[in-house]
Design goal:
Elements lengths: L2 E3 H28 L6 H24 L2 E3 H20 L13 H10 L2 H21 L16 H79 L4 H25 L4 H4 E5 H15 L4 E7 L5 E5 H20 L4 E9 L2 E7 L26 H12 L2 E6 L5 E8 L5
Length: 413
């Protein structure tokens, strides 16, 4: 079954309330104000029936994300039936508002598939024929509003204004819906291209991880022997121990790359502060030359469902900030972490050249560093999207770039 945006039903419901108000005002003016010989009971019944239908239809249209073509045609059919009833009891084809049968046809032509358009055209034609065949004659009412003014001409003028306003409003709404759809499609195309590139990168990384595992294991053994032999050589032994720790860290990272995705292992309950402390310690082990200024506002006893992607995000942002700071002759990176309303909010600030020299977060594999791979911000952006968070980048006061992120984390039971 074809599905349509629910915005079409919401627009029809809004127009229907205007129709109810306009019909009520017209009946009150023409029948009770001008005293034209129309039966008021059927006309008021038509107004009430349309209002009752919209009391059901309007809330439903607001709840639906998508609407079926059948339901949309039901709404349009009810509007045509109501218009047929009102026109038939107020002059038939002689009623200056009889051309309103063209409005459902015009709306369907720009919003519905051609088969549905044929149905609406047939319904409008049948409604016009029935209102003409069974309609009561319309009195022109010459002289009622000042001789020789013809009430029929006033009705035609009002009909033109109403029809023009409805068509203009509906087309403006439709154009706005189309613009938003185009923007959403552009965003999805960009996200798909980025995801496709990252998946290809992940596949290649897993293959390379298997290849690197053997030489890193050999390096580990060589460094263990070298440390054992460097007895009494304090400075050299300290350097070798640091090298061994770095190689161990690299082996751990390579093994993580080689592991298949496992949601149970990737997400597990952990104390938030302890997990973040471990991340920062591991990063500082790899970047000992960078001074990290850290500010926290985190509950010490909070346990969350920890996702491994949070760690990858922080590592990538800290590495990018460290590279930018060092390129500008600084060795400082600022990290701020806070827990607010069930979300981990943070910012990473460098002291580099500023936003003009940085790669935009949505640009895949772009880098401003001569020896950079262009992966940091692209992977960060993908991680934030996967976790349902927000990532923003701007110039920091006093120079450098500040990257802000916000990640929803579930509190573990």
């Amino acid at each position: 079954m074809s599905m349509l945006p629910s915005g079409l039903l919401r627009s029809l419901a809004t127009l229907r309330w205007f129709a109810v108000a306009g019909q009520a005002a017209t009946v009150a003016l023409v029948v009770h104000g001008l005293g034209l010989p129309f039966a008021p009971a059927p006309l008021w019944a038509g107004v009430a029936a349309l209002a009752l239908f919209n009391l059901w239809a309007a809330p439903r249209a607001r709840r639906l994300a998508d609407a079926s073509l059948r339901e949309t045609l039901l709404h349009i059919g009810v509007d045509i039936a109501n218009l047929t009833w009102m026109i038939a009891w107020s002059g038939g084809a002689m009623n200056p508002f009889a051309s309103l049968f063209l409005l459902p046809l015009a709306l369907a032509a720009v919003a519905l598939p051609w088969r549905a358009l044929l149905f609406v055209a047939a319904a409008c034609g049948i409604g016009y024929a029935l209102s003409n065949a069974f309609g009561r004659p319309l009195s022109h009412g010459h002289g009622m509003l000042g001789d020789p003014l013809d009430l029929h001409l006033w009705g035609m003028a009002a009909n033109f204004i109403v029809s023009g306003a409805v068509v203009a409003w509906f087309l403006a709404r439709l154009a706005d819906m189309l613009r938003r759809r185009e923007q959403e499609l552009a965003r999805l195309r960009e996200q798909f291209a980025r995801s496709e590139g990252i998946v290809a990168l992940a596949t290649h990384a897993a293959a390379v991880a298997h290849e690197l595992n053997t030489p890193l294991g050999t390096l580990t053994l060589m460094l263990e022997d070298a440390v054992a032999e460097a007895v009494g050589e304090g400075a050299r032994r300290a350097d070798l121990e640091l090298m061994a720790a770095l190689v161990d860290e690299c082996r751990d990272r390579v093994r993580q790359l080689a592991q298949p995705a496992d949601g149970a292992r990737a997400s597990q309950p952990r104390a938030l502060v302890a997990a973040l402390d471990q991340l920062v310690e591991r990063w500082q082990l790899l970047r000992p030359a960078v001074a990290l200024a850290r500010e926290d506002a985190l509950p010490r006893d909070l346990v969350v469902t920890w996702d491994a992607g949070v760690g990858h995000l922080l590592q990538a942002l800290l590495n990018n900030a460290a590279d930018a700071s060092q390129a500008a002759g600084s060795a400082t990176v600022h990290l701020d972490l806070r827990w607010e309303q069930g979300r981990l909010r943070g910012s990473v600030r460098d002291f580099g050249a500023g936003l003009a020299a940085a790669a935009a977060p949505g640009r895949l594999f772009a880098t401003s560093k001569p020896d950079g791979l262009g992966l940091g911000l692209a992977l960060s952006h993908a991680t934030v999207e996967r976790l349902g968070g927000v990532l923003a980048i701007d110039d920091a006061d006093g120079g450098g770039v500040r990257v802000r992120f916000e990640l929803p984390l579930s509190v573990a039971a």
